[in-house]
Write a structure and sequence with these properties.
Farnesyl Diphosphate Synthase
Length: 304
């Protein structure tokens, strides 16, 4: 019996859409930032020449663990996502995926990622990845409804990818790895607060506490942004001071820090939507440029 081509085409289209929805559960754009951070830690910490196979294994395991955590976060926050304009079209609140499917998908790839790191790379990297997932899902996510300072808790798990990468290369996480951790932690403050300011009403509607929602005049939010931007003028200079990178990186980090501080100062009082959007874009540019220049100017990574 011949099956009509239209039916086969419809089944294929639905199957393809389902895979796309499952892929989007892992928040691939965030995973790319995670991989860049893990890559930086691996290359700065590893022996030379770089073990390309081990690097790819570390990145694969990290990507799976991160995507699994993101998928489980979407499962846990599906009700809140349905109330927010920016998230209501995600696969679960939009009804394209069932919560059960998302749950098992998230558990599956998170377990696969941590297990792969433990067996193909080493135990320390797997432990860092597992601890990050536990912190993100069981500590940070519930606290988003309890304290407007939850972003500081979330900053901890968001800053661990360099520790995963460095430990994947060496089996430990020395001072250099923790410097990268500190840079990422500080970077997340203006980045997260800029997002929270732009979508304050959405978060309030969903019952998620963010600092801008309980800070009507924005004074506390601006102070925290400025303090973190000031810290990003100094802490990112440490890689040069401890020999991880060179003078070109030092100058680049200083200029990037000044630029970010300028955007923080321009928030003004009261802050405009446009000013917060520009700050957000500045943070999105800041991190990849900083890490790429750090690697290019690290003689321990590249022979030139």
């Amino acid at each position: 019996m011949n099956v009509p081509a239209g039916i086969l085409s419809g089944v294929s289209s639905r199957s393809w859409s389902r895979w796309i929805d499952l892929f989007s559960l892992g928040k691939p754009r965030i995973v790319l930032f995670v991989l860049l951070s893990a890559l930086t830690g691996f290359l700065l910490g590893g022996s030379k020449p770089v073990d390309a196979v081990r690097l790819l294994q570390a990145l694969l395991g990290t990507a799976l663990a991160a995507a699994g955590s993101m998928a489980l976060n979407q499962y846990m926050e599906r009700e809140a996502d349905s109330l927010m304009e920016r998230t209501r079209r995600r696969p679960i609140p939009d009804g394209r995926l069932s919560p059960r499917s998302a749950l098992w998908f998230g558990i599956g790839i998170l377990t696969a990622g941590v297990g792969y790191l433990a067996t193909a790379v080493n135990l320390p990297s797997a432990l860092f990845a597992a601890a990050t997932a536990v912190w993100y899902l069981l500590i940070y996510t519930p606290l988003k409804r309890k304290t407007p300072f939850c972003f500081l808790i979330g900053g901890v798990c968001g800053a661990t990818p360099p520790l995963i990468g460095w430990s994947a290369a060496t089996g430990n996480a020395p001072v250099g790895a923790w410097i990268l951790f500190a840079i990422l932690f500080l970077w997340q403050i203006p980045h997260t607060l800029a997002i929270a300011c732009l979508y304050r009403e959405d978060y309030t509607r969903a019952g998620i506490l963010v600092l801008p929602a309980v800070d009507p005049d924005g004074a506390s939010t601006r102070r925290l942004i400025l303090v973190s931007c000031l810290a990003l003028l100094s802490v990112p200079l440490l890689p040069t001071l401890v020999g991880m990178s060179g003078r070109i990186y030092f100058l680049a980090a200083l200029m990037l820090g000044i630029g970010l501080l300028v955007y923080g100062i321009r928030l003004g009082s009261p802050s405009s939507v446009q000013a917060h959007r520009k700050l957000l874009l500045a943070t999105l540019a800041y991190l990849p440029i900083l890490f790429v220049v750090m690697l290019l100017d690290a003689p321990a990574v590249f022979l030139w």
